[in-house]
Design a protein that fits this description.
Layout lengths: L12 H12 L11 H6 L6 H14 L5 H8 L6 H5 L6 H15 L4 H13 L3 H14 L3 H8 L3 H12 L14 E3 L20 E4 L5 H4 L2 H12 L3 E4 L8 H4 L4 H21 L4 E4 L2 H8 L1 H4 L7 H10 E3 H8 L12 E4 L3 H6 L5 H8 L3 E4 L13 H4 L1 H16 L5 E4 L2 H8 L6 E3 H8 L6 H4 L1
Helix pairs in contact: 1-6, 9-10, 12-24, 14-17
This protein binds iron/sulfur cluster (2 copies).
Length: 451
């Protein structure tokens, strides 16, 4: 794509990088075929190619983001399906991140929008605040109808309704699996040869505790800890670790995202330097994509670029890690269960991990069924299901309808956002892949399957 930036404009690092990305787009339009918002709305302006044109115009003209552009960028899920499809290697993910930052700096949002964004940014990244907010929301939920009547069909009303719908039945109290500590490798475990692909030396990993996940389902990390320790790994939940920053980053709050990331980088580097780490294991694929991108986030930072690179190099999705170490023990015989595997966008498009979860589930003796249109987002996408409830619900219904056609016993995914989103649209149990793997390799039967 031809661009028209002045030399002065290109002296700005961000603009110069955006311009490089823009130039790689050959406007072929292949990406439109797999873009969920284009599929739902049929409007070129809500397609990747259309968004790229709008971004180019905004950056070239040096104008503040217009309301129209903000609408089309806000509707983008950052699912990165377009990047998987693009034959030209357009780095849409970083382009839209840069655009969101530009919007945050140049566009004045309405008061209600600002309030909702502030609320989400202040609550969700902090487990204690999030837990308290959910408890309060549970108390208020019986009055949801009154709230809906009060707020009508306004955007705020729709968002509040979406939030009410997403409140889980059970809110998890902190457990020892969600607090700092070290879980020692089980004694008498298989001491198989160390994997040369990952340069494993210490059999010690850090596990990201995360922010929302431990409040919504603490058994996910508990299952990961049980399985990893049975495989002979010490698992550390380092003191001081917190939200990965993805949530605020996708809202254009670059500095806040960097603050979260910086704290985690320092915490993990301290662990690497003192006790050594083979990997930083992550059970929420949305966070994994962000942590793998820390190297890019701090690429121009002389103090942090090396450390960020080290952290990104060690970051592994739990299934990616288990696939690399080639599970050294054999599974037990499970009942005959069919599993519909839902590929989270952050895993399949963001991290290009497509086969590992399915092959691990199959090796564990489970029957794995593919879901039609598996490239499409379920509508979760961070806080998209709150901020864009109408589109998110359409995507959820489409995903659940596709799941129903294969009638699985269980649905499995690698991201708490997807698990929550799909879970509110189906009566079938929705689990994290690691909960099924833990069960297959000697752990307890997941509680959701005992109901
Ligand atoms: S597929 Fe890639 S090159 Fe083609 S229009 Fe989309 S982003 Fe541009
Ligand atoms: S990230 Fe997803 S929603 Fe956004 S343009 Fe790409 S495919 Fe469409």
């Amino acid at each position: 794509m031809e661009t028209n930036f002045s030399l002065l404009q290109l002296q700005d690092e961000g603009t110069a990088e955006a311009e490089k990305i823009l130039r790689t787009c050959v406007h072929c339009g292949f990406c439109t075929a797999t873009c969920p918002t284009y599929l739902l709305l049929g409007d070129e302006l809500d397609s990747p190619r259309g968004r790229i044109y709008q971004i180019k115009h905004m950056l070239e003209s040096q104008e503040p983001a217009t309301g129209a552009l903000v609408t089309h960028i806000d509707r983008c899920l950052s699912c990165l399906s377009c990047m998987t499809t693009c034959p030209s290697g357009v780095d849409y993910g970083h382009l839209v991140d840069y655009t969101r930052t530009h919007i945050a700096k140049t566009h004045q949002r309405g008061k209600a929008d600002q309030m909702m964004r502030f609320f989400l940014q202040t609550i969700l990244p902090y487990p204690d605040r999030f837990r308290l907010a959910l408890l309060l929301a549970k108390i208020v939920r019986p009055f949801a109808l009154i709230i809906q009547m009060g707020t009508g069909k306004s955007q705020m009303g729709q968002r509040l309704t979406a939030m009410m719908r997403l409140i889980p039945r059970h809110i998890e109290a902190p457990t020892r699996h969600t607090m700092p500590g070290v879980f020692a490798a089980s004694k008498g475990v298989d001491q198989s040869p160390k994997n040369t692909n990952t340069n494993i030396k210490t059999k010690r990993v850090a596990l990201l505790t995360g922010c929302a996940q431990p409040v919504l389902d603490s058994d996910i990390n508990a299952a990961a800890i049980r399985l990893l320790t049975r495989m002979g790994y010490d698992v550390v939940l380092p003191e001081g670790e917190g939200c990965c920053g993805a949530l605020v980053h996708h809202m254009g709050e670059e500095n806040k995202a960097k603050g979260h990331a910086k704290r985690n980088i320092e915490v993990w580097c301290r662990e690497i330097d003192t006790n050594g780490l083979d990997a930083i294991v992550i059970t929420t694929s949305g966070c994994g994509t962000s942590i793998k991108d820390y190297a890019h986030m701090f690429r121009h930072d002389p103090l942090l670029s090396e450390k960020a690179q080290k952290v990104s190099n060690l970051a592994r999705d739990i299934c990616e890690f288990l696939n690399e170490i080639k599970l050294p023990i054999s599974p037990i015989k499970l009942p005959d269960i069919s599993v519909a595997y839902h590929a989270a966008c952050s895993l399949q498009h963001g991290q290009h991990i497509k086969t590992a979860p399915k092959s691990l589930l199959k090796k564990a003796g489970l029957t794995v069924r593919d879901i039609a249109e598996s490239h499409l987002c379920c509508g979760s996408a961070g806080v998209y299901n709150i901020m864009q409830p109408e589109l998110a619900q359409k995507l959820q219904q489409r995903k659940c309808a596709n799941i129903e056609t294969i009638q699985p016993d269980v649905i499995a995914a690698g991201n708490i956002g997807c698990i929550t989103q799909i879970g509110t649209g189906t009566k079938r149990p929705v689990l994290h892949v690691i909960q099924l793997l833990d069960w297959a390799y000697g752990g307890p039967k997941p509680a959701k399957l005992s109901k």
